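Supplementary notes for students who missed Thursday's class. We covered one full example, reproduced here. Read the sequence, then the structure, then the short commentary at the end.
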Amino acid sequence: MLNVEKILEDLVKFDTVRDKENKAILDYIENTLNLMYFKTEKKDKFLIMSNQDKTPLGFLGHTDTVGFSDNWKHSPFSLTKKDNKIYGLGVCDMKSGIAAMISAISQIDFKNLPKGIKLYFTYDEEIGFSGIQEILKYEKNFPEMMIIGEPTNNEIIVGSKGLLEYEISVKGIKVHSSTPEKGKNAIVSAVSLIRELQEFYEQELKKEQNPNFEIPYMTMNIGKIEGGTAINCVPDFCKFLVDFRTVNKVAEKNIMHKIDFLKQKYNADVRELNHIPMFFNSSEESSKTCNFITEASFLKNNRIILGAGPITAHEVNEYVSVNSLYKLVEQYKQMIERICK
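Structure (token representation):
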């Protein structure tokens, strides 16, 4: 039986910001699971392991973390336990989930279960989702049920909004600002495009609703804009980034058609950065959903998101509570025993 705090302590020691020590953390996980008679099915930048041929249940977790600032009160790469809280970089997102998976497995007597489980450990979740996309190219037989160990404060999440992200560039003609009529202001054109997009969002997109989500309509955000070179020059370029959190296929198609229309109208260059569909699994256990994107959104089979809490992902002095961590181990154990019987 492996203690979940000890496993988490070991995992946090690896610097996996931008997957720096990706190989080392996968070696640790592989060696630990080998001791519990799990075999390695595939190991590259990602790791797939299983303990039987019949695996109706799978667990998935990413090993990378975001970076950290100088404002941390505790060492990011060591575990600090204080007032029922466990601090460390990635403890919430999502090394606690991985630690709970391994600890739960160590407490199960699989000799008494006719079926086993399959484990997937990915990389590059925080930046580009390269890990899960590489696994999708390799894996053709995912288990019927997948559990993704992202932080949820021990609540079962059965759905997530989709994501559409665009980079839109508008061109202009650069001249001196004293004779603006000789040029074409790319920033002004981009602002007009954004205004049309915002009006379409307010008047049309919000009509498409899905009651399964806390915010039942698609949301839109202009996250970044840049253009021009100097105050005394009419800018010949302007670029902005926009994302939409989608609630259904109709809303997706509507915004895609509108983006295409605006592209033609403003002679803009449009690059789709991400297109991830929403998902919702009906479940007797939960109807809770989230607005953020996880690797669960890339899967097609039944899946839930379940992890520790409180949700302090990407925060300074990231932590989980001791009670939540041990509760998660019990939740995973119960699911293994129920699904693999």
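Commentary. Residues 93 and 201 are 32 Å apart (CA to CA). The longest helix spans residues 186-203. If anything here is unclear, bring it to office hours.
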